[in-house]
Amino acid sequence: MFNKYMEPLFMHYLKDRASAVREIGTAKLKTLVEIFKTDWAMQTIIPKLNEVLKQETGYLFKIAALYSYQVFNFFQFSMILLKFSQFFHL
Question: Could you tell me the CATH number of the domain that includes residue 65?
Answer without folding.
Answer: 1.25.10.10
